[in-house]
Specification:
Strand order of the largest sheet: 1-3-2-4-6-5
Number of helices: 8
Shape: globular
Strand content: 5-15%
Oligomer: single chain
CATH superfamily: Uracil-DNA glycosylase-like domain
CATH class: Alpha Beta
Largest sheet: 6 strands, mixed
Radius of gyration: 15 Å
CATH topology: Uracil-DNA Glycosylase, subunit E
Structural class: alpha/beta
Number of strands: 6
Helix content: 40-55%
Number of domains: 1
Length: 184
């Protein structure tokens, strides 16, 4: 198993799919390497691509607020994405792109050994359960089994609070549930 910095260096040079051609930075992930919670987003956006850090800008501010409401410190979790490079026009990543990044995600999981995944969006869920397809509204708030024998709580991406404000209460409740799961 590779050390996290070695893995990041390899990921930064990755050319497995066409996304690398348009990136400014690889957004590998960051956070506590002993985290109980591994938060997985879908793909980096513009701010993430510029900074090389996950969940920045509007999405990052919303995520930080959600974590605060739940009493979770961002520094205590590990945050990454299903794909490590920005997609054109911030579209959802294609399954083929997710598959190209799956080995990086698998190795991050092996290094961090989280107790639970928080999948933020359908693409994030598909990165952890690659052979299972769901409609997000059917599984939001549910704990799913994964191939890693680690439970996964599925919720909406933070930007849904802007585009679909009717999801606000669901997302807040999911974050509160996450905290209860970790603290027992």
């Amino acid at each position: 198993m590779k050390h996290i910095q070695q893995l990041k260096k390899i990921c930064t040079k990755c050319k497995k799919c066409p996304l690398h051609k348009h990136k400014t930075n690889c957004v590998f992930g960051e956070g506590n390497l002993n985290a109980d919670i591994m938060l997985i987003g879908e793909a980096p956006g513009k701010k993430e691509d510029e900074t090389g850090r996950p969940f920045q800008g509007k999405a990052g501010n919303i995520l930080n607020n959600l974590l605060g409401i739940a009493g979770i410190n961002r520094e205590d979790i590990f945050i990454t994405n299903a794909v490590k490079c920005r997609t054109p026009k911030n579209r959802a990543p294609y399954i083929e792109e997710i598959k190209c990044c799956q080995d990086y995600l698998r190795q991050q999981i092996e290094i961090i050994k989280p107790k639970i995944f928080l999948a933020m969006g359908l693409s994030a869920m598909e990165a952890i359960t690659p052979n299972i397809r769901y409609k997000l509204s059917d599984i939001e708030g549910e704990i799913l089994k994964t191939q890693y024998d680690i439970g996964m709580l599925v919720t909406y991406h933070p930007m849904n609070l802007i585009y679909r404000p009717n999801c606000t209460e669901k997302i807040i409740n999911d974050f509160k549930r996450l905290k209860k799961i970790i603290t027992g």
